[in-house]
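User: what does the whole thing look like in 3D?
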Amino acid sequence: MLFGALFLSVLALIPVHAEECLKCHRDPRAKDSPPQIDLEVLSRSVHGTRSCEACHPEAKRVPHPAAPGRATEAKRCGRCHEEELKDYSSGIHAKAVAAGVEEAPVCSSCHGGHGVGSPNSSDSSVSPRNVVRTCANCHDDPVVSGRADLPGDVVATYLPSYHGLAQRHGSTEAANCSSCHGSHGVLPASDSKSPVHRSNLVKTCGKCHGDASRFKQRKVHTAGALGGVRGWLSGLRVFYPVANRALNPLTIAGLGGIVGILSGIFGVGGGFLLTPLLIMIGIPGAVAAATDSAQITAGASSGALGHYRHGNVDAKMGVLILVGGIVGGTAGVQVVKHLRELGNFDFVLKVVYVVILGGLGLLMLVEGLAALRGRRQAELRGEQVEQKRSRVHDFFARMPLQSRFERSGIKTSALLPFGAGFSVGVLAAFLGVGGGFIMIPAMIYLIGMPTHVAIGTDLFQITLTCANVTVQQCVANHTVDLLLAITLFAGSVLGAQVGVRIGRRLPGEQIRVLLAVIVLAVMVMLLHGLVATPDNVIALAKQAGGGH
Amino acid sequence: MFARCFALAVFAVSNSLAGAPNVPASGPAAASLQTGLDRDRIEMGLRYQGDQLFLFGHVPQETTDLVAVLQSRHNPPLKLLRKGRVMGLWFGVKQFEVEGLPDLYMVNLTCPICNGMETCRHAGRAEELFRRLAPYGGAGYGSLRRHSKVERLRGAASEDDEDTLFKGIWRLKEKSGLYAIRTNAIHLEASDMFFHSFPIPDGAQEGQYSVRTYVLGAAGLLGMKEDSASFRKVGAVAQLTRMAQRHALWYGILTVVVALGAGLLAGALFKKGGGH
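Assistant: Here's the predicted 3D structure for the full assembly of 824 residues, as structure tokens:
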């Protein structure tokens, strides 16, 4: 009864002359042919009181001529909606329809057919609440997007944006598709007349945001904002689990590569350079220092293998230095632990570091330059260049436990490499670095090893030392980030091989001069850190608990 | 009126005792306050680059201002150094331990004039809003100071220690995106719906987070609602983190094996390349 009354009231809204049409187009026996009209939908439409002929003039004749088709639909609607037709005709949708693109939208694609609603009605397919869904019918359909060569991610990137989320949760003011792209005359972003063309963005965003010039010039739909390989590379980020940071892996691998090259040339681990670089790009200090030891293991092992092939690794010497280094390092760590409790130890260490590096660097630079000059003169005279033996070497030549080190071409007491390793181990524990750039000069100037063998042997002992440190850091501090280390390896192991090749082409004197320059540069960097006024006088010391 | 004053007084006392706000949620105004998060779980996978926590809701008609505070619930103590200049050189002269500071702390505020759309030049309103919220637990820099405890571990005490310390901490955290006060960050629509979001930096830690939304009217606090969200590491990120923490020795051995493997493999590959 109630249904009947409802039906009658709906029927009462239909214009009288439509009744003739409904005889066929609302025939319960017919299925799809002729097309059936849903009276309820029609009654809700803003066109519900219009006659059928207003939109279908050709239908006056019976039997009806062939339907005019999609291409002329806009013109038919435009008889009443002139402004909209003008706007639509200038847009990409109309052009696509004219070009015969089957998926291109006509008026009814967005507004619906018989159920055209007012844009202000919440039911309308083009109301602020529904317009995204309407546009998504095509722009989020992979088939349509593929056929029409449309970017496939515009809806997927809009939805999680601020505007998209506000829309989803009921906002009627947040920007939807038509707020920025326009409604009828939609143009591609590449068209200078488009409201989303780069040159018009400030004006378009300014409709809501006033002074939109403060916005960064980038697309709202963020995925592939730059497009192509460049966009992919710039957007590439990996979240490193222990570091708790998202960073571009290519940047990290690049840093690893640079340090690997230095490692290969000079035989240093590169920790003194890599740790501050990692901190600079946002890795927490504790993670940078700990992960560095893992990457040095990789880089040094790669470099050591390269040097081993060229006969530049004195394993016997390396093991003795290593044993000395482990004993010295262990003793040093204990001493440091006690000294730290006395306070201001870090500062004292930095000062010691600056003094040692400054002295060592200057010494190496002067000696290296002198040796380089001497080499040139000797070469001019056609003589062989011999490295001078130090007084320390002469002293240890008279000490017990004499042993021959074939690769290094020297005979000395085993106490010398052990003592050198011990001293550097203590120093390394004090200074918190691998000590490569202290060990190399010690090997060259104290023990009297040839430069290339000193480098190869140092890489060998660094590999073993840092492997031990890596495990210790994992167990004691949980600060090694394996994923970060792997990314660094990718660059450093390749860099180390390149470094070995570069190093082979350089004479020992030149390498010593270059290493001296790097050592002095590190010294200057540290000195600057001590003298320059910090941006913030408060600095994190260490998480007291609960951290990683 | 008396009942309202009494209720607020009871609330203020209980708040000061408990250290957390407990705003009366009764009356028509409180009833029409509804808040929600877009999602209550942020997943930190390999592709995580930071995120945004989107909030929305409905406020009473008499609302003039909203203050939303996002903060972490897991707040480990912080050890900090205060640097000083001695004989021309800068080094840590004092050490402090601060308890009760959240790892992440962000405040979003409305500006009725700009309503989240224009560049706001009314930042001064923030302090006024924080003052109005003070009886209910408060928000902002002053509230953080009040709710934390400082212990000097090393160095001589001086009057400006705490001031310098808190300003320094705020700057440190602000630089890494973990602390922020964002005026004019909430958009209030004509329909009394509000929308805003907190930008979550990639450095935010795993754990539970709460968002308190305070609604203010001309007469004072109209209501407060609390929502919570959890930030969780997932997939390979979670597995590696757990392994690093719970199976540290194996994790260390694995790291060394991978490091040596990578180094030696690169060495072998270069040999095959015929470089020598």
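In plain terms: Residues 6-13, 543-548 of chain A have pLDDT under 50 and may be disordered. Residues 104 and 315 of chain A are 74 Å apart (CA to CA).
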